[in-house]
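Record type: ASSEMBLY
Status: queued
Input:
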Amino acid sequence: MSKKVSTSSKMIQILDENGELHGEIPKELNNEQIKKIYETMILTRAFDQTALALQREGRMLTYASTFGQEAQVAAAFALEKDDWFVPSFREHGVFFARGYPISQYMLYWVGDGRGMQIPKDINCTPISVPVSTQILHGVGIAWAMKLQKKKNVVEIFFGDGATSKGDFHEGLNWAGVFKVPCVFICQNNQWAISVPRSKQTASETIAQKANAYGFEGVQVDGNDVFALYKVVKDAIDKARSDKGPTLIEMFTYRLSDHTTADDAKKYRDEKEVEVWKKKDPIDRLKKFLLKKKLLTEDENKKIWEQAQATVDAAVKEEESMSPMKSEDIFTNMYAEIPENLKEQIEEAKRVSP
Amino acid sequence: MSVLNLAQAINQALMQEMEKDESVIVLGEDVGTDGGVFRVTEGLWKKFGGERVIDTPLAESAICGVSIGLAINGMKPVGEIQFDGFSLPCIDQLYSHAARMRNRTRGRLTVPMVLRIPYSGGTRALEHHSESPETLFVHIPGLKVVVPSTPYNAKGLLISSIRDPDPVIFMEPKRVYHAIKEEVPNESYELQIGKARIIQEGTDVTVITWGAMLKVVREAVEQLSEKYSVEIVDMQTLSPMDEETFIKSVQKTGRAVVVQEAPKTCGVAAEIVSRVNEKILTSLEAPVQRVTGWDTTMPLPKLEEYYLPNPNRIGKAIETVMNF
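Status: finished
Output:
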């Protein structure tokens, strides 16, 4: 028997780029929470700008900027405390929204393994660099909850490039078959390094791919925190009540290079970037807040200053941490260190300067 | 005690672990209503139902990757890959994630999963159904690789693997699934992972092997039993490797032959020879010999016997080290 699934062909938007409303603000968001989302977006951008600057000074590794995609924060605000998120590598805002310590997060990006020793009160997997592979872990984590009769859900993040890979297909297919309580969030930022979305798939939208897996797909303005919060919250509610997964295509744009290792001017038209700059998720929410008199320019300035101070303090904390011990590379390979590694620990001590 | 074949012993291990611990689930292609293509999961679906014995979509990367997620979140998944040749899509998930999740999160997340893979040739199977890819898994730090050889160690090692806090690749010698029967305790028991066993003691030469090759080695040694006193070491676990047992044995005998079904170059046998050389080179009376599959594509059944190590080739290698 065939089952009808709906995938809306129209991109969902509530807050346009001029800060005008075209629908209702999700009822779960009060003014305080909206402000909190706004502050976390600014924190994310302050982190981003600082990271880019540190990278140029050689104080960070290659870094993947999240400039322009800060609305992702709203997706994290839709989670409950014990819910999980499964990130790719461009979800800095999601980490911060979930309370991940910034200094520790920064450790990861300077090449210190302790950066992903996830705090006990945060449910997430570590940053995942191999594209799309983490989708399967998210499905497994969510499925475990269903098997354990728990009511928690998992947000699984990946980019537009990931939708071309096998693990995307295997993961969504599996989640459809077993009605796994997860929400797939594709941050479609239009570019997978130098390859545009149009060369990634012949599908008209990424959301429509959900049709093939037997569940709902939604395309949402990914720079609109209200619309994004709403579709994610709806999908989470659905997953929590055992009605299966949803694919959300978060239509956004990477205003920066892919990472600090490439120059986007080489492969894309600056005019396109200019168009997207006008859709900036932070500017848009700011316009709304100012109009509604929920924010003044003075307060805004203070939010930015506070965000920068928080990031600066985190950098200071990270840079003053004592380094990992060399032999820490051997620990945590297994629950118990096997003989061959014990021998190598001794050998390394003997031969290392 | 019951007399069981290897498939039945594994089935019993799964049955008992599932009874004991409800976080243990079995998942894979055709493992449920069909009971597995080798009948290894026979009866589990009926006893435990479709929520714990799960017929999955035909997707090996997902069987592995979803198991990682399940294991991270409190389950003990025992995934089955139907045949050795189809385990390759799992390499990405194993190499990139299962093996390093503990290390990457400094112990915060762990992956206590088992991936069962029937392996080995000699069953006149179709292409891609007769591979011995253990080296690929052994080369991934963070995995454990267990290769049972008889019903008794298959049961005990699988129970230990399921209880192990780290990811275990459990390679089942499909050629001996139904070919060897032995007495197996009815009750549940563990055999230590990372421990080899001495199958028979001897003084002239040590033959080191594992998995499907143990039966072949025994035949070879039997044929030479009047002539030489041969010690047989069954590795049982390839990672981490029980170096102490084979080093002691070779130190005693002064001669060694390593037998593996996989291709020769960079195989596990090469690792064993290296360790012998590093540790006890001067105890050797002869260069260590390897008897292995050739560095060729696994041949189709018409020529697979020509590829597989057999008692004749093993006998010749023993003669070589004895007459050096």
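Annotation: Chain A has a mean pLDDT of 96.
Annotation: The beta strands of chain A are 84-86, 154-159, 182-188, 191-192, 195-196, 216-221, 246-251.
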